[in-house]
């Protein structure tokens, strides 16, 4: 018995230390968000109805048909009177922006949010171990990360990454990069800066598929601070629970549905095609199918399985269904995959809040319908779109800011962030709220009491509806005599 005891003890001790080491290792891989700061542009860059009309009407390449298209798009976009536009465009320099104009636009967003982030958290720029910057349409040399490092005199050993061309879902890509680096670098601090350059990429042609970007995109951005240091856990506001990235770049239709090109006249811009909705639905469905087992309760997955089996039996597809489960392919499995967004799975059983990318009213409506979300769930995204417009990769944080300003977030709540972007990509993640006192009004503090407004109707419809009159089809508009 003694011999057996002495043989078992070393094994038990080894198992205990191995398990302890594994637990400590996994704790070190956690990703906590300490704070985030959204950018609020200067009031003199606000893009109200009159200012927007002046910008549209000074484009002499447009014809009456394009003006009507723009009016219809602006009215139905879900964007309000208080969004912001780059100074380059407001000053009429969109046809010939300089490199200095672009740097001024980006610098204002990056440095303002970073200044506020350092002041708010009390950390010094020299404390930062990892820096990730994503601006899709502007990639200078030296990089934007080097520009930040130079401005704040950061350490020589900082791990810096500059992401370009990742589209509106780049923010989640940046967070994933920080999370992966946290697995190697212990007790670290990481910053992600997410924004976009609009002024130098304003479309000046008349291709309707490329004019959409001018109607939707507005100035904005955000900076976020993360850590994997367990000692800072008590200061965290959110904890990253799950991350799922999906890229449909191998599909030609998905790849070309949202792409930067030149039109027939040589004007560069961003082309959005009708297949964007289809590509977004496919990418989102595949992404959520992979994420569902990680975030939904077992009883919901079991319910979905039973419903799927019953449906297969009614259609005499039970045998193919069981076969597809074993071999992992087949047409039946494909049908099941796309039933995820058809109301089959109830994601509200595992998620309390939905932070949708405010890319446009159609995007919000489509995701809401697919996931069977109510107006309460969609309100943060709708209000962020109305107040700030589509701020590209920074848009998610204006939505989160609305939730916080409205005091919706409670400790233990889970937030599903859904981002869609060119590629075509769908990058989603789930956060757990770490505190009960998340009630900072942030960039919403001057207007949160007025949201949601009684109506989201755009003043363009009432003021410029005359452009739809039939008699104008035979007239030539005189821009110089138009009164705005």
From TrEMBL:
Domain FAE positions: 25-310
Segments forming domain Beta-ketoacyl-[acyl-carrier-protein] synthase III C-terminal: 349-432
GO MF annotation, one: fatty acid elongase activity
A cellular component term, taken from the record's GO annotations: membrane
Keyword annotations from UniProtKB, A to Z: Acyltransferase, Transferase
This protein's pathway: Lipid metabolism; fatty acid biosynthesis
Keyword Transferase part of the UniProt annotation: yes
Reactions that this protein is recorded to catalyse: a very-long-chain acyl-CoA + malonyl-CoA + H(+) = a very-long-chain 3-oxoacyl-CoA + CO2 + CoA
EC number: 2.3.1.-
Entry's Gene Ontology BP terms: fatty acid biosynthetic process
Protein family per UniProt: Belongs to the thiolase-like superfamily. Chalcone/stilbene synthases family.
Name of the protein this chain belongs to: 3-ketoacyl-CoA synthase
Organism per entry: Clitoria ternatea
